[in-house]
Amino acid sequence: MSLADATTPLPGSIHLSGCDWFLLAVDRLAEGAGPSSNTCRLVLRLDGRLGIEALRQALDSSPLAQWMARVRRVSLTPLVLPAWSVGPPNGGIPASERSGPTDPPADLPAANLGLRPDRASCLRFDLVQGSDEKSSVVLSWHHAMMDAHGAEFLLCRLGGNGSGETEPNCGNPVVPNPPLSVKRTMRDVLSFPNRLRVCRQSSQYICNLSAGGAIARLMDRRDAVGRRFENFSHSIDFDPDETARIDARATETNAAFRKSLFYLASTVRAVHSILKKRQTGEGNFLVPVPRDSRKRGARGPVVSNQSSFLFYLVRPEETGDLAALVASLGRQMKDQIRDNVPGLFSEMMAQFRRLPLPIYSRLLSGPTRGQMASFYFSDTGEVCADLDRFLGLPVEGIAHLPASAFPPGLTVSFTRCQGRQQAVVSWSEGCLDAEELALLERHLRRDLLEGGRE
Question: In which element (H, E) is residue 123 found?
């Protein structure tokens, strides 16, 4: 079923994915240490000025956008799968206009936009008009509603060829789960014993990873009780020549076909440099990395996160040699794929949807004593490769600004757009100071461009 086909009735409700419910449980963990924003952003820098009325017209004329504006999470009977439900018409996705710098992440909307999954709309647009007669389109959304790829598909649907319709190669988003049904619910209940075994296997794997010692962290959960966080982002950009050098260094470390491991190893070493400077003690780095669960070549769905996770453990003594660290991460990746860890964890997330969020959050925090990870990391690859124009205007650049959930309070996301590599650092207030941010960028640039050479 296509969410963008005006001739097809859009569903009134669909199940949340296991990853959606997982993100909501992680979000609830942050509430005990002060509200944090689980807001993601995707920024399009346009070569020209886009009018707010053109953007609003594209939103008003899109069945998909109108449908998404009405979607919110509803609370159902305990032990029943949670659902996204479509409410009454509400005026569409909010879109506002303002003046300011158009290069992200400067002068973006405040971190906490009030985007809540239990209230429609879970997303909004901001059109930033620069003094250079250029515009930036900022899409903000609550992370539980969709992942980065879903946001890209939405933008393709809205303005891929300048008329509010999608170019054919932008794909066809589909409903991620079938509509709610009693028959489906009963089938899931009958398979409970097997599902319980899978959950135990997955949770035991995480327990084994975290049992080897303290988890390295930049921010202590106990010191954050009762605080309200602001979130910040910083973009590290590389030109085409530097991007080519990064690819060459990845090849030198035997990561040519798995560059994300090269990026992850460099990030671990950069964060480790901050901990060494602080002299506050060292711990093992535990980093969950999302793995897209879509079938190869699939371009949808828009709504719902479609990810499982790989989990990487790095001991402090392993951070000294970049190439050796990449090799260690590669072995861990192969072992997890061989043992079907992403599949088991995906199944566990799917089954835990029946748990109330307070219980789910408590279970998640148990194996790691509330410290979910040392930091969050992602590599989304090429961003909006098919989107060279938006509502008739050339796209100069695209940037993903990931959410910064606490704990751990730090997220590093790698993307590539128009032949340029980019790394975006997002952090919660108190996690990094200006000097530490500069140190992190300096170490990242050295490892990525020089291959870890001192």
Answer: strand 123-129
